[in-house]
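Tokenised fold entry reproduced for everyone:
>
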Amino acid sequence: MMKLHPLRTYKSSEPLPREQQLAWKIAEVAVDPVAVDADVADMIVNRFIDNAAVAVASLGRAPIVAARGQAQAHPVGPASGGAGATVFGIAGRYGPEWAAYANGVAVRELDYHDTFLAAEYSHPGDNIPPILAVAQHVGADGAALVRGIATGYEIQVDLVKAVSLHAHKIDHVAHLGPSAAAGIGTLLGLDPETIYQAIGQALHTTTATRQSRKGEISTWKASAPGFAGKMAIEAVDRAMRGQTSPSPIWEGEDGVIAWLLDGPEGRYEVPLPEAGEPKRAILDTYTKEHSAEYQAQAWIDLARALGTRHPEVRDPARVASIVLVTSHHTHHVIGSGANDPQKYDPGASRETLDHSIPYIFAVALQDGSWDHVASYTPERAARPDTVALWQKVTTVEDAEWTRRYHSNDLSEKAFGGRVEIELTDGTRIVDEIAVADAHPLGARPFTRPDYVRKFRTLATPVLPGDVVEEFLALAERLPSLSAAEVADLNVVASGLPAAPKGLL
């Protein structure tokens, strides 16, 4: 039974014992030797395959080429404490922090891996690159890797359920630094004191504003989670060397709650597993069938179906208006409620378009499909009939869809809404969708064959067929892999672009 831990600010004159601090309680969860349940291990394999699929598909994209170049500038050296880690797409061994950064950017670039949404937003699969990099560096086996990943997911999901960052314009990776540090602590079998210090440092160094996801969205959107993973590894390294952290990091008078979140009067309750309770949070998360912001997943599925059933809605000359009635988040972050003119700009960046539900709905409506490349090309975005239809799509917030979005009852939690289409002849078409088809409660929930198909679909254009199958064969045995096999969890591609020159 999960236990709720109260969280608030304490004045410096009001000492808070270490054992009562959230960072220490998280460390206690990380050191709990409870076994990983079979269904949790199975889902970890699914998400490992999922991460690899989207990472491989993005190997030629500019942010990944740049991040890979930075990793290549930091090969593992003779003074290192381990064997180094691999970087997707290339051979060699690199500093684990830089490998985690490069692979983290690759995983995040296409906005195409798993998600969990509650009080905050998150992509819990972002925990995998730093935990894998450390596992390869120290020679850990698959069982240890799976334990570490289970902790990373558990802590991030628990923080996301309790603490809203976006309400104060703080980027969601502020929950990733602590969760990755905790997962690495589990992997390495560290003591609570060391993990506690690492969590404090990881949080302190990964708080940043949400401007990375506002307006003209830049390539940093993909880099932010990789940077958080890199910071988590460096925090663990410093803590293992006996270095300490700002404390109490969440609860202090000048800490995160007091100055970045709800302020001195803020109150939270963070759910964490009891001692001996399995870490099962990964089962609350869900992946993406489509390469777009998660709140767009259900809308893509609805648009595909509507365009097929009602071809007339694809013609802007026949459409007077399209209104998406939805949750607060969808309206204010990826909808017209964001008041970002860039979301209606045919010349906007890909990062901006995948956070524009008016654009996404219009293209899915017209094409009856969604592709991680073709749906975002400048030519596709600038097509005159698409631009005309796109400009007619707006969003409005509805209290009931917002309530369902925030519901703690996973059976009613929803990320879609209702569409109201008015045609120029007066016809009105209304339909709705609660969750994406691939969601666990959707029309076609993702299972292992879907994850394997996603990997083959995205990796086959980039890798030789034998490399694709060899990687899948290893990944599907993840919990039982030897240390040597974990070290081989990588793919090498040919013909990748050379990295641009930088400083390092």
